[in-house]
Amino acid sequence: MTVFDENLIIETINMIKLYNFDIRTVTMAISLRDCFSENINTVCDKIQFKLDKYAKNLVKYANEIENDYSIPIVNKRIAVTPISIVGESCSQKDYVKIAQVLDKSAKNLGIDFIGGFSALVEKGFTVGDLGLIESIPEALATTERLCSSVNVATSKAGINMDAILKMSEIIKQSAEMTADKDGIGAAKLVCFCNSVGDNPFMAGAYCGYGEPDCALNIGVSGPGVVKAAISDLHKDADMGTLANKIKQTAYKITGTGELVGRKLAEKLNIPFGVIDLSLAPTPAVGDSVAEIFQAMGLEHAGAHGTTAALAMLNDSVKKGGIMATSYIGGLSGAFIPVSEDAGMIEAVSNGHLTFDKLEAMTCVCSVGLDMIAIPGDTPSTTIAGMIADEMAIGMINKKTTATRIIPVPNKKVGDNVVYGGLLGEAPIMEVGNLSSANFVNRGGHIPAPIHSLNN
Fold first, then answer.
1. Strand (E) or helix (H) holding 369
2. Distance from first CA to last CA of the chain, Å, rounded?
3. SS3 of 114, please?
4. pTM of the predicted model over 0.90
């Protein structure tokens, strides 16, 4: 006779019902390397066939798993081979057409987001890379589910400042072409240093060149669970006890994600990829990374000590997660997106959290300057400086960093922007008024650091 642990069952139910634990995303990575053709129409037909072949049952089976285990699966997503590579095979390089085919397929399949409208240009541009990058504003303005990313730096290659300058202009154009929706185009566009090909989280997800033909990657989240676990500790518990509690909680969360991922991959008859255990918050009260800092003892996110608290949180999440599975991947750790975290929104609105403090925190978090709304009249050269700073943090520290900055048209400091859903809402943040123009306009390449010579 099977013996059930009543306390464990109750604890799992509480994680879901009381503390907003969920499977944030199941992301099917699909390689499009066999979709190349000189004919753009053939490429589009091949892409649509490939997506239908693998993903036709993704939403159906995910819903069945959700019902079987009573664990919410918030998003169903697809990530494809960087489209700059796929479209480059065409004699007529119509990247907007490919974008619209991807978006249409996602809609027909019931997919929430599709990622991979991407290019990797850390060392320079090909004709296809430039074609895709220049098409991003129109592609994002004429689609609903499409997400785009461009990798402009790595610890091995250095920082492509020409790409950063180009992307700062593309970000502005993407926001302006979706001005009627408060620049939402820029909210679906991210610049990376050291991007990873098994990331299930948008807007940076794509199917890496070394990935199999198809695989299922899982993104698990649970800031509310971690906050509740910390709140249960004695207020005088030392840092070691705190870190250990976070590790134990991350272990439980990861095990649940592993179960869901393997069961769904089995139903879909595709390989199981990785678990990305990322404390990705939502605008819901109680599902906030910022509130974890308060549970740790800080008055608010942004107080002195916030970066240290985030460093311990990020490290403990990874240590706990890696013990529950051999397949931790993606980004894994703690995200600090402003618009998607109720506590972060409050901290920025009250002046506790500034742009500069957020940049400092990105040295130890999982991704970077994420979902930050800034005045629409911010010069593109200033945005280029922001991107360059964040890429430098990633390059020097051999970690993934990113920027998802939204210059909201016709908005200024003191205004707010509302996107709804997981994208949330945000106050327009103040940015520095000193010029970066002469520096960023030098262009060229910032060389890789000396520690890149480690082979």
1. strand 368-375
2. 55
3. strand
4. yes
pLDDT tens by residue, 66-116: 888 888 898 999 999 999 999 999 988 899 999 999 999 999 999 999 999
Phi-psi region of 444 (alpha: psi -120 to 50; beta: other; left: phi over 0): left
Domains delineated in the chain: 26-193 (3.20.70.20), 219-447 (3.20.70.20)
Q: Can you tell me which residue has the tokens 């990058």?
A: 133
List the structure tokens of 242: 């705190």
Which pLDDT does position 1 carry in this prediction? 37
Residue ranges in the chain modelled with pLDDT below 70: 1-20
What DSSP string runs through 351-366? TSS-HHHHHHHTTTSS
157 neighbors 391 (Cβ within 8 angstroms): no
CB of 226 closer than 8 Å to CB of 250: yes
Q: Which long-range contacts (CB under 8 A, 24 or more apart) does 55-61 make?
A: 55/28, 55/30, 55/109, 55/111, 56/109, 57/267, 57/268, 58/26, 58/28, 58/109, 58/111, 58/268, 59/109, 59/110, 59/111, 61/264, 61/267, 61/268
Tokens, residue 247: 């590790």
Phi, psi of 32 (to 5 degrees): -110, 20
Question: Hunting for tokens 């649509």 — which residue is that?
Answer: 48
3-state secondary structure of 281: coil
Task: Read off the pLDDT of residues 359-380 as tens digits, 9 standing for 90 and up.
Answer: 999 999 888 999 999 999 999 9
Phi, psi angle pair for 420, to nearest 5°: 80, 170
Question: What is the model's pLDDT at position 88?
Answer: 93
Give the chain's largest Cα–Cα span.
74
Q: Which of 205, 215, 26 is nearest to 118 (CA)?
A: 205
Q: What is the DSSP letter of 250?
A: H
Q: In the 8-state DSSP scheme, what is residue 451?
A: G
- pLDDT score, position 16: 59
CB contact at 8 A, 429 and 413: yes
